[in-house]
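Example record for the data management plan.
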Amino acid sequence: MSLPPRRLRLPLRARWSAGLATAFALALATAAPATGGKARAAEPPYEARLAPYYGQHLDWHPCGKPAPRPAAGRVAARERGFSCAKVRVPLDYADPGGAEVRLSVARKPANGPGERLGSLLLNPGGPGGSAVDFLTGYAGEHYPEAVRARYDLVGVDPRGVGHSAPVHCLDGPAMDRWAATDLTPDDAAETAALRRSFHGFADACRSRTGELLGHVSTAEAARDLDLVRAVLGERRLDYVGASYGTFLGATYAELFPRRVGRMVLDGAMDPSISSRRLNLDQTAGFETAFRAFLRDCARREDCPLPTAEPAADRALAAFLHALDRAPLRTGDSTRKLTEAQATTGILAALYTEAAWPALRRALAEARSGDKDGTMLLSMSDAYYERGADGHYSPLMAANAAVNCLDAPAAFTGPAAVRAALPDFEKASPAFGRALAWTALTCADWPHRPTGTPHRITAPGAPPIVVVGTTRDPATPYRWARSLAAQLTSGHLLTYEGDGHTAYNRGSTCIDTILTTYLLTGTPPTPHTTCH
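Corresponding structural encoding:
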């Protein structure tokens, strides 16, 4: 139902070097948590109470279990050199002696040649994307060879995400209904139904997740990263974050600027803007990407839309409006394609130009005489990470849980959405209405936000490279420019192109600059642009 600024991933990895004495010393230098006050009487200082976490030993073991007969061309993670472990972190940093959360960590050791540089932590975005799955299913085999040679690649699922005590909300059938809910209400009854859907989702998260739901903020996840850094035996955090992963990385830099190593923030988010502004900017970003798709489509023989953009706009609007009245049949007799799911499928394809051929075909099938919505439904399902068995990953649950803690809600109720509709429809005539209503997600959240939008400067951090793509649909280029300007040591790298994020997506220029930075620490020169 909502579209987080996350990185789409190909089908989707960790040797721990001893350094406990160093880690323990670093633990004692940890600053007190932003949410904490003075320690209670007769308790050790906050730093000392965290020492058991910073000094813990990791029990590494092969990741996963090999299938009895692996499919041709696929090899179990354990047979490809991946190892996994659990890291204990406090549920509440204001009460380190209380309950704990166990984070899943995966690693693939540097394979040489060349001297090992340390551990490089990766986060693919979300919030809600699994760094463990990203590592074991993609980055561990397909990240730039020179980086894999010199770094242990490490993926850590943040608290509430993936394999780290994931947030749970709706079951499969309920998620099917949630994803199909009308996002463009035409009357009071449809508005009430949408509001009930949001409220039901939030209530299910509260009842199924429990106390953890109030402790999955990005600030807490950033503190967790510092614990992981220490138990890996690293003095500094080397990190590549994509999409939401840039906000996580920037937050770490704000909390621990002198522990930042080499940091790449690709497809940057702007931490200084409100939730309303974020959703409005992202709406405009999807419109920019849709315009690029239409221009490309007009040059293709198989384009299912009129070649003139105004006519293409009218054709898409008519198609979505028709779905609002009458959902399309699909290959699954129990499910039809609704307007909301078609919108999700279209927007998901705008994350990468590699998906544009599939989008042309999906629109052609849905608008043809047969009016088959199967392909658009499958694209929506893939975005929501719905399996063929009807089971959903915890992606969307974690996405809402983190976002709703990190900042005040974009809108407090339907009246506020209606007042904002002209701005959203101006930003995107095609998708503005739906994206405005999805921004109501946090209005009924059971926990008050713990974060507020603010500038992140991170004085004292070494050079941090911020990457922006000019026609990025999910993290508009203006966000990268803003974050690079906020950071005292920010260096902006621009990719003139389409799609979400830039590193390891086919640009030799981008890949060479960022790989060189990761290996040598040398950032790009000012005003560098790749095409």
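Summary line stored alongside the record: The radius of gyration is 23 Å.
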